[in-house]
Amino acid sequence: MKTRVLAAALLVSLVALGFSLYAQVTRPYHPGSVWEIQFIHVKPGMDSAYKEWLATDWKKEQDAFKSQGLILGYKVLETESHSSNDFNLMLMTEAKDLASLEANEQKADAIAQQVTGSDEQQRQGYKNREALREPLGTRIAREVVLSPR
Questions:
Q1: What is the CATH number of domain 29-146?
Q2: Mean per-residue pLDDT of the chain
Q3: Which helix (H) or strand (E) holds 111?
Q4: How many Cα atoms occupy the beta-carbon half-sphere of 130 within 13 Å?
């Protein structure tokens, strides 16, 4: 009698464990790539000048990062600002995962120096762009990939 009760309890436990494992495996989503998103407020009348910088120097740097395998891709999104202090441009850089984003920081710094110049030249570039835009912050986001049902 005790053996049957133990066997029944074991069977119920195994079935419950099987259902919980099945539920974990069949989630309709999985984690995707990681995006670093910079929120930029382009100053009035400076759209063309800032986009020109994006299309030249910024793009050259992003393409160098991509060719070295540091990033997967990049995008620029423009939106309307809801106030005078709101962002109207997002610079998005896609990395494989958070670990590779962090692990490649030194490589990215070295490539940036090759493409855009020394630290001093980069600082001067930041100062020059102050007249064009105001960076409002940066966020890291993980893409959620939805699987078909």
A1: 3.30.70.100
A2: 90
A3: helix 105-116
A4: 6
